[in-house]
Design a protein that fits this description.
The complex is a heterodimer of chains A (about 525) and B (about 300). By secondary structure, chain A is an alpha+beta fold. Chain A has 3 domains: about 100 residues; about 110 residues, no CATH class; about 240 residues, MetI-like fold (Orthogonal Bundle), CATH 1.10.3720.10. Chain A is about 55% helix and about 10% strand. Chain A contains 20 helices and 15 strands. In chain A, the strands form 3 sheets. In chain A, strands 1, 2, 3, 4, 5, 8, 9, 10 and 11 form a 9-stranded antiparallel beta sheet that branches. In chain A, strands 12-13-14-15 form a 4-stranded antiparallel beta sheet, covered by helices on one side. In chain A, helix 4 crosses helix 19. Chain B is mostly helical. Chain B folds into 2 domains: about 70 residues, no CATH class; about 210 residues, MetI-like (MetI-like fold). The radius of gyration of chain B is 26 Å and the shape is flat. The chains are: A alpha+beta (about 525), B mainly alpha (about 300). At the A-B interface, helix 1, helix 2, helix 4, helix 9 and helix 10 of A face helix 3, helix 5, helix 6, helix 7 and helix 8 of B. Chain B: One of its GO terms (cellular component) is plasma membrane. Chain B: This is Sugar ABC transporter permease.
Chain lengths: ~525, ~300
Amino acid sequence: MTITERAEARRGSRPGTTRGFSWGFVVKLLLMAIVNAFGLTVILSAYRAESWLVLGIMVALLVAVDVVYFTKRALPLKYLAPGLAFLFVFQLFTLGYTGYVAFTNYGSGHSGSMQQAVDAAFIQDEQRVPDSPAYPLTVVERSGELGFAVVVDGEVRAGTALEPLAEVADAEVGSSGAPAEVPGWTVLERAQVLTDPALQEQVVALRVPFSEDPEDGSIRTREGSTGVLYSSSLQWDEEARTLTDTETGLVYTADDRGSFVADDGSRLATGWYVGVGFENFVRAFTDAKFAAPLLQVTLWTFAFSILTVLTSFGLGLLFALIFNDPRIRARKVLRTLFILPYAFPAFMSALLWRGMLNSEFGVVNDLFFFGADINWLGDPLLAKLAILWVNLWLSYPYWFLVCTGALQSLSGETLEAAKVDGAGPFRRFRSIILPLLLVSTAPLAIASFAFNFNNFTIIYMLTEGGPSIPGAPNGIGSTDILISAIYAISGVAGGTADYGLASALSIIVFVVIGVISAIAFRQTRKLEEIQ
Amino acid sequence: MSSTTTTRPAANRTSARRARWWAEVGWRYPVAVVIIAFAVFPLLYVLSAALNPRGSLAGSSALFSTFSMDNFAALGGTAYWTWFGNTLLIGGISAVGAVLMGACGAYAFSRFRFRGRRFGLTSLLIIQMFPQTIAFVAVFLMLLAIGEVVPELGINSKLALICVYLGGALGANTFLMYGFFNSVPIEIDESAKIDGATHAQIFWRLIMPLVTPVLAVVALLAFISSFGDFILARLVLTSEENWTLAVGMYQWVSNQLTSRWGLFAAGTVIAAIPVLALFLGLQRYIVGGLTSGSVKG
């Protein structure tokens, strides 16, 4: 650094005196303006959507970020804040939320609050009101969303499936009596509605709430020119928490399991979620439907991760021993070729092997088993072997690299001394190389075990957990590991959802990982590094 | 013994030497050929399938029997390039974000002494053991809730997926970078400080250029992990035009495995080449990162 540069840098310590500093300050102000604008937008829309949790978290985050960046103190936090914000919201919060959901019956039929369940009940029960007036109606559209514009008591109101009808100022009613021009909306010609079958279907299925109150019912149409009022015969008594069907006289009472149940045992399809204590955990262990398949899945999860680590470690070590010899030529080229499977994207490898192991057309049967029809992925035992094989192919290069590195860092003197003492190659390996190698690779083996314990990709891409275990729920299969079984049970990919049970199982996986990590913790010296 | 060897004819001696060479070194070459066949066969097979104009799994077993670019051309008629773009976008932004957050975090932990520093490091070490993928149900439910407030951050938003990936960034990368930052001598900071540099100037102008290798590794690892992620991407991105390659190509293979094989193979070849090149190019650094336990295994 020259003297002038130094002088410049020193001046930089006073705000606003050099270009370097003021630029940074401008960038900071700009970024903070964007962050604050974003935060305020979220807060406002959370207020409008009455989503108090989102609002609370956003206010806390925004205040924290502003305090951190606009005070002179808290220097380390200036660097940590962005990462911490994401960590809190998208990792810590989700971990905590998993813990919460595990103690509820959140899932299909129990997916919202009681108020949402009541609203849903009204909608499901809606029927055409027998003496409803016919409202002149026009199909309208706004930003891709279909809606209705109707004439009610001489004024034009418009709305969509999500937005209840609201008055539109300056709308014009055409000669047919239906709205002809609706400001803010695109009017769809009646001919267009009649000639486009797909559009027609959408129009017939559309229900536009009459008002904010679901008890007022909704407007629907059969032909696209007149709207009829549909409403529910249910009556909601918030005090008594009962829904009364005024037609049949049945009274549905809210029970403590999150459902509306009538005296004759019938229940409404939509419920809400409630806390159920340890029930999900108990169900995982004792419910005959789940317990047996889940036990099988758990055993296979352990077998899969242990065997994968053992086989790939063994093969990688063997290759490392063979090729860690300075007399071999072109070792770099060989090494690059050896690790190709590791560099290849894992999900693509698994999908590729899925095709290669296809029983009918797969190249493995065609080339190596003389065209036999071996059902590699359809037989419970063969599918397990196939998964282990593919995972061996995927992960031996990792251990080859690790072991090569570890072998090269072994002290040559110790080995020389053993040689002089007359130890043969096998003895040297067993008594010196292997113990020293294990010291440095054991933490990695544990990490690899934990990784494979949750190796969703390979299982799902190769077999999707199949072939399914006869009688097991949600199509749990004999190659499912815990995380893929959780995926099947959770129903996020379709089918009946049981978020509660899925989260409870996730908690169990957390516990297993926690124990493994505790062991790994004692192995690694990372904790000492901290001090 | 040496006297007997010297009396033997020279030809005999060379053959003895050759036998010894075979016993000690030579046998390793045939073994290497076997290993390479094991490692490379699937990759050659997918290349051959990509060049096979029949485009189906049936009949793809005769390796390199035909040569045509039909499959690659046919990718244009699918959503492949959209998915490719999505993958690059999501992976690229998450990689940049992960590097910035990780570097800032590592800088703070490495250069400042503050209350809660040890607690922070230990917590990060514990948190990073619990990957987000196990909590996918909660991620899904949370994004549903956020989506009601801010649709741009809800289900079916690429931005939401990036945010989810960035949630794991601090935990996953800080440690790898922390070690590297510590290896940069603190005297550099101190002399700059005496010269009047601010902490931000030290970070951006001095430290960051010195730690470029670890930045590259973390970027690559973050990119590869988002590239290969299926479970979260599948959960968050629901409409086809938002899918990443992992979600889209899985759909191809799971629905019509045998008929779309050619497309899958061509798509795999295109997508894998840049990843392979990056990985092999940065091999030296990654091997160093391996031993810190931060790479898939």
